[in-house]
Design a protein that fits this description.
- The chain is of the alpha+beta class and 629 residues long.
- It has 3 domains: 190 residues, endopeptidase domain like (from Nostoc punctiforme) (endopeptidase fold (from Nostoc punctiforme), Alpha-Beta Complex), CATH 3.90.1720; 226 residues, no CATH class; 55 residues, no CATH class.
- 21% of the residues lie in helices and 26% in strands.
- The chain contains 12 helices and 36 strands.
- The radius of gyration is 26 Å and the shape is globular.
């Protein structure tokens, strides 16, 4: 390989070279970025013609921008550059249609062409991420490529490419690119072509691998002896709430469980990781287009704090939950619970303890990594002091809060659980302190942010008034309200305030507009269109929780299911009808849990109704080898 560079490294954003179509390559040395020019993460997002390209100035951003300018199509979002090698289509922007994309391994009989994407595996200089470049020229003994985020030096004067890579042609015409050890391995190249000759096979996946299956474990006793350790506070609280050592509230279901294939679990993992990125992109897009925030129903005075929360790099997620419908018909996401999601203990501990109690050897626990991942996330957090776990006085929140407290303490952090707000007080300095006088600095909560906003709505005469934030009109010894606690600037809250946006159903139409016809999304609109009426639709309040005020209507305008609730007066979104699969006597929803934005485990919630709600049961989910399905 020969490098085409002969200059010293440049600062972030410096023009390195210009490729075909006038596509510029910029330095991506983040350590030299000007904080005044790039004050927050939003400033690093790259758009071209209003279309999201990626993060400035990463390799994926350049590849997507080059393809858009020169070819008119882009590929879907990926978490890491090496994942591009698994894509099999691109989206033509003007027609909004998909075109075939084929992968050819290094050494293929089909040679790369100008415009091909060259993909590196993770490893070497590209540890964890891989790399992507665009082939600009194919020479007899080399190829020339254009790229970003390889190094931070300018291209050679007069060159419209960043570097050359040497080539050897085998006796059979096999095409090999040199791979220096420090760069890891070149996986191959990607071509937009309908011709599959010499391309990597795209394995045909049996759609039945995506079905869930109901099993009964044969046991001599259906009346279980105690099996949860009530000496552990979280397990004792769970037993108290369930009125015994039960996995679900229906005693006859004790020996039943669901399983999925390894192929289905792999799909859930990929979808969780990529959808998290898509929701984060949609969140940033909303904040860059303030007119869209009206549909979310937030008090206007709170918007600067939401923006500040998003821009603050300390405000990272600990954990969140996706709700899916999974079957042989495919995978569809209903919504993203970034704020105060539930069922962590059921998936991260209870279903595993249940399987051990019954000595179930078949498959493995789908939530076996959740607790360990939570501990790791807290270890990597920026917490520097005591974490206060805030919860309402509710039996379900008791064990939920205690489970998270256990993870926080296992991470080596000091933690105290606070039930209700009565033990919290304002001190003489206008600081909120706990019962021992320790100021609140770091909080994890089971309360929803929306609960605090509702307090503000009830108290505000002028929704644009910002004076309710950090209210200084307090008296020592008084008990603060939830809004007082969560909106203090000196208090870091997990999950952060910006999670109000991806957790709000108004994000779903925006997501559909940004990623139209994405295979994991359902068409969603703020207005009930004729097209949705013809398909069947689900109406959801934008801030609804636990299935409240949801209605399912089929293509014949017949109501299939509906639930009441306290959110009937709020605005609605309308989502394409995609019913949960009914397996046995229950409709089954798959929930995946993300920790720090990455997949960590799965569970199921079941109900005899088509709508999963607060009282819907959790049952065990296990993963089997494909051959066992």
């Amino acid at each position: 390989m020969t490098s085409s560079v002969d200059a010293k490294p440049t600062i972030f954003g410096t023009l390195l070279g210009v490729a075909a179509g006038g596509v510029c390559s910029y330095s991506s040395d983040y350590e030299t970025a000007n904080e005044a020019e790039y004050p927050n993460r939003s400033a690093y997002r790259s758009y071209y013609d209003g279309i999201y390209m990626g993060y400035k100035w990463q390799c994926v951003e350049f590849a997507r921008r080059w393809l858009y300018v020169n070819k008119g199509y882009i590929f879907n979002d990926v978490s890491m550059a090496y994942e591009i090698f698994n894509l099999r289509d691109v989206r033509e922007i003007q027609s909004n249609t998909t075109l075939a994309l084929k992968a050819f391994k290094n050494g293929s009989l089909r040679h790369p062409e100008p415009g091909a994407m060259l993909i590196w595996d993770e490893g070497g200089d590209f540890e964890h991420t891989g790399h992507v470049a665009i082939v600009s020229e194919v020479l007899p003994h080399a190829i020339r490529i254009v790229e970003q985020n390889m190094d931070f030096v300018k291209w050679k004067e007069g060159c419209a490419y960043s570097r050359e890579i040497t080539v050897k042609i085998g006796e059979q015409g096999d095409f090999w690119l040199h791979c220096p050890p420090k760069e890891g391995q070149i996986l191959g190249w990607m071509l937009q072509t309908e011709n599959p000759l010499h391309s990597e096979d795209t394995p045909e996946i049996n759609a039945e691998f995506y079905n869930l299956h109901l099993h009964q474990h044969k046991t001599a006793s259906t009346n279980p002896r105690p099996w949860l350790n009530i000496a552990n506070e979280d397990e004792a609280a769970y037993v108290k709430m369930m009125k015994g050592h039960w996995l679900s509230s229906v005693k006859e279901d004790f020996t039943y469980y669901y399983d999925i294939s390894q192929t289905a679990e792999a799909l859930l993992e990929t979808a969780t990781d990529e959808l998290h990125g898509m929701f984060m992109h949609a969140t940033d897009y909303v904040l860059q287009h303030p007119e869209m925030l009206e549909a979310f129903g937030f008090p206007e005075g709170i918007l600067p704090r939401i923006r500040q929360s998003w821009d603050n790099r300390l405000n990272q997620l600990i954990t969140s939950r996706f709700d899916f419908a999974l079957s042989e018909n495919g995978l569809k996401v209903y919504e993203y619970n970034c704020d105060s999601a539930s069922c962590y203990m059921e998936v991260g501990k209870i279903q595993g303890r249940w399987a051990k109690h019954l000595n179930i050897k078949r498959g493995h626990d789908a939530g076996k990594n959740l607790f360990t991942d939570l501990v790791a996330a807290w270890k990597k957090s920026d917490v520097k002091g005591k974490v206060h776990v805030l919860q309402d006085n509710d039996p379900e929140e008791d064990y939920h809060a205690l489970f998270m407290q256990e993870a926080i303490q296992a991470a080596g952090l000091e933690c105290e659980r606070v039930v209700g707000l009565d033990s919290l007080k304002w001190n003489e300095d206008g600081v909120i302190v706990d019962a021992t006088g320790v100021p609140l600095k770091w909080i994890w909560k089971t309360w929803a942010w929306e609960t605090a906003l509702e307090q503000l709505r009830q108290e505000m005469v002028d929704p644009t008034d910002k004076r309710f934030i950090n209210n200084s009109n307090t008296s020592a010894g008084q008990t603060p309200k939830l809004a007082d606690v969560l909106l203090r600037k000196e208090i870091m809250v997990y999950e952060p305030m910006w999670t109000l946006i991806p957790s709000n159903k108004a994000i779903l139409p925006i997501l559909w507009a940004l990623f139209p016809n994405h295979p994991w999304l359902l068409e969603t609109s703020l207005e009930l269109s004729d097209e949705l009426k013809q398909k069947g639709f689900v109406s959801k309040p934008v801030v609804g929780r636990c299935g409240a005020n949801i209605q399912l209507v089929d293509e014949n305008n017949q109501t299939l299911a509906e639930k009441g609730g306290n959110f009937g007066g709020r605005d609605y979104v309308y989502q394409q009808l995609w019913p949960l699969p009914k397996i046995g006597k229950y409709y089954v929803q798959v929930c995946t849990f993300a920790v720090s934005g990455n997949y960590s485990g799965s569970g199921v919630r079941v109900d005899s109704s088509m709508i999963i709600g607060k009282d819907s049961d959790c049952m065990a989910l296990r993963v089997q080898e494909d051959e066992a399905i």
